[in-house]
Amino acid sequence: MDKSKGTVIHDIKYEKFMTWLHENNFPESKLTLANFTSNAFKLDSRNLELNLLLKKGMMATSDIEAGEVIVSVPRDFLITNDSLSKTYGTNHSLSSHQILALHLVLLLRDKQSWWKPYIDLLPMHFNTMPVKYAKVLVDHLPSALKEETLQQKENIRTDYLACTKFIQSRKEKTDPISAEEYEWAWLCVNTRCIHMTKMDNRTKGGNIALAPMLDFLNHTTEAKIDSGFNVRKQCFEIKTLNPYKKGEQVYINYGPHDNLAILKEYGFVLSENSYNFVLLDEEVWNLYSEVESKRGLEIKKQILEGAGYSGDYSIKADEISFRLMAALRLLALNGTLEPGFDRRVMDWHDVVMGQTDLISPDNERKALIMLQSICQKVAKQAKNELAILSNITEKYPEAGFHPFALYFLRQIWKESSEIVEQTLLYLNDKLSRL
Fold it and tell me: Mean pLDDT over residues 383-403, rounded?
């Protein structure tokens, strides 16, 4: 965990925000907004060279012990589906995400809103998130991330249409909202919401809430916390299980996410993330289609589905998933339509169930060679993508990429390359000893 000291931010909007909290009896905390410098991210494109990245985070104003509550947000400061029912009623089909995003748009327009000090501190843009990338960058996302990004874009569109329809159905006069306004609000909710566990279990789309102060805390996989709604105190609390010294950045943990998930949902990556992996589903299914006949492919897919081993084939820097090896061991079984195949499938099931380690040395060798072939293709793809991205700003100067968007995308491919290369080293060693 980064132990660098921060510098307190003296910002008019933040000072108004803190005054607003104090005037409305928000519980005091040992946190303040600060700038932190980190040499974890180095931009090395031809037109931009930045060795130190300045980022905002919450700094400890005095020592914090493990077990302390670092933020306590009273119910009155939580924007939830339940609190919004007083404004929009309950007789609608909008999800909690949809209604919170709609409400943010309307709060942004209301210059006299009680919430204005909080709204003024929300991000102005989300240009480092893949959903905001220009098409030329989206086209260079890893295939799984590209598919999820396009789905997220579609989710925003359908949610916007649902909210537009809802506004039109209300008796109160409300000016139409634009797609751009709603996208901004939707992404605010997506990147900053917390998940409630003790309130309104009937909420459609999950019990989520916006919580001032809490949403300024940054993420690291090393942070250990307890969080939840304290019914007795009527507050949402976060308790740190890590101690902090005065001046250090205080973190929370968003969950066990790899950098692809973090980039899609929050618009950044971690310089070191133990959860990183490379998903090889597309490559595995392509290999199945190349090796098997149409009927053989159907049979083996049914076997995988029946055993619960269809998809989710991944590698990490120091691990090849059991699911991946199960799929390749099955693919390495010859003679799908020949006598004796059922017996070989039973041997495969024995390995899947942990009753034996190998089907046979020959089967294991074939499976490892298949994985080696897949990794070589992915390594080549990653190398090509990095080469393309290194010159993409010169090729598409009109696209106006956010520098960190491009950096983060290159970081994703670099991490994939490193994981695949480490796997290839392991496979070369393993095959040489078989």
Answer: 89
Would the pLDDT of 88 be above 50?
Answer: yes
Classify burial at 271, counting beta carbons within 10 Å of its beta carbon; exposed 0-12, middle 13-18, buried 19 or more: middle
50 located within any domain: yes
What domain range is 315 assigned to?
278-432
**Domain contains 273:** no
Rounded mean pLDDT, 203-220 = 83
Same domain for 256 and 293? no
Say yes or no: 49 and 162 in one domain. yes
Lowest mean pLDDT among 47-51, 74-78, 312-316: 47-51
Strand partners, 319: 316
Mean pLDDT of 132-137: 94
Segment holding 218, helix H or strand E: strand 218-219
Structure confidence by residue, pLDDT tens digits, 38-53: 644 444 433 333 434 5
Rounded to whole angstroms, how far apart are CA atoms 5 and 281? 43
Q: How many domains does the chain have?
A: 2
Q: What is the pLDDT, as a whole number, of residue 204?
A: 56
Domain containing 41 — which CATH number?
3.90.1410.10
> Which residues are within 8 A (CB) of 351 and not within 5 positions of it... i.e. 6 or more apart?
326, 329, 357, 358, 359
For range 147-173, the mean pLDDT: 94
227 and 97 within one domain:
yes
State the DSSP code for 202.
T
Can you tell me the distance from the alpha carbon of 62 to that of 105, in angstroms, rounded to the nearest whole number? 37
Residue 148 CA to residue 143 CA, distance in Å, equals: 9
In a domain, residue 2? The reply is no
Rounded-to-5 percentages of helix, strand, coil across the chain:
50, 15, 35
- Say which CATH number the domain at 402 has: 3.90.1420
Helix (H) or strand (E) holding 70: strand 69-74
User: Cβ(189)–Cβ(101) under 8 Å?
Assistant: yes
Here the tokens at position 240 are: 């740190």
